[in-house]
Amino acid sequence: MNTEKIAARRLSLEEVTKLGVKDRLFISADTAELKLPGCYVPAFLTESGEHFEGGSITARTVFQEEVSCLPDDENEAGIYLADENGSVTIEVLQSAGVVLDLALFVPGGDKGALTALYAAARQAFGADIVQIWRQGLKEVPDVKVDIFEEQIPRGRKGSDSPKRDRRAIDTYPTRADFIEFSAGWKPVVEIHRPIVDNTPTI
Predict the structure, then answer these.
(1) 56 DSSP β-pair partners
(2) What is the pLDDT of residue 13?
(3) 104 partner at 20 to 30 Å CA-CA among 8, 45, 118, 191?
(4) Half-sphere exposure of 117 toward its Cβ, with a 13 Å CA cutoff?
């Protein structure tokens, strides 16, 4: 486990209420799945402290976990701020790296292509550094499609033709699974039909 010792001071509830969502603080690294007593992680408040109206404060760690805590509760780990003149030294959990959640399209992706892909990643970052924890393979059809987002109609059906915006032209339809569509819009996937210009030329 990689940690860094930093000088810090524990914040009172009054001090926490003066913090904004961009202020870096440190909260306990304990989670329901993993107990790390005496260890802290960098975090930020999910909303400005001035909105605190009693109860617990919620912070989001740099590891994207939301944690609730009571700053003034002596039985809890508390909230700390880095301070060179702080009265305590805390251990802060460091990041080991990032887990990439990617959708990779490997043309003609047979076993040889995937082996070469993993070998290149290991060469770039060091042997045994890149670990394949979960691998889901799915072949995709060689079809070119248009991906649109279409406004979800409101009110009576058929009152107006739905508005439509093109999002992408792609070689296979699975890309629609990874596009974030706007609120109030839905994805529409259609076989790509090239526009044929029949305008006579001289």
Answers:
(1) none
(2) 84
(3) 191
(4) 14
Please answer whether residues 97 and 27 qualify as being in contact, where contact means their C-beta atoms are separated by less than 8 angstroms: no
| CA 45 – CA 57 distance, rounded (Å) | 8
Q: Would you say the pTM of this structure is higher than 0.70?
A: no
In angstroms, rounded to a whole number, what is the distance separating the alpha carbons of residues 69 and 79? 8
pLDDT recorded at residue 81:
92
Please, which residues bridge with residue 192 across strands? Answer: none
Q: What is the pLDDT of residues 35-51, one digit of tens each?
A: 888 899 999 999 888 87
Residue 38 to residues 12, 14, 69, 91, Cα–Cα distance (Å): 19, 23, 15, 7
- CA–chain centroid gap for 92, Å, is 22
Tell me the H-state helices in the chain.
13-16, 111-125
The set of long-range contacts for 15-22, using a CB threshold of 8 Å and a minimum separation of 24, is: 15/81, 16/45, 16/49, 16/52, 16/57, 16/71, 16/79, 17/49, 17/50, 17/52, 18/49, 18/50, 19/45, 19/48, 19/49, 20/45, 20/48, 20/49, 21/45, 21/46, 21/47, 21/48
For 119-168, write each residue's pLDDT tens digit: 888 888 877 666 777 778 887 777 888 888 888 877 655 556 667 776 66
**Predicted pLDDT at 158:** 54
Those residues whose C-beta lies under 8 Å from the C-beta of residue 21, and which sit 6 or more positions away, are: 44, 45, 46, 47, 48
What is the torsional sign of CA 20, 21, 25, 27?
positive
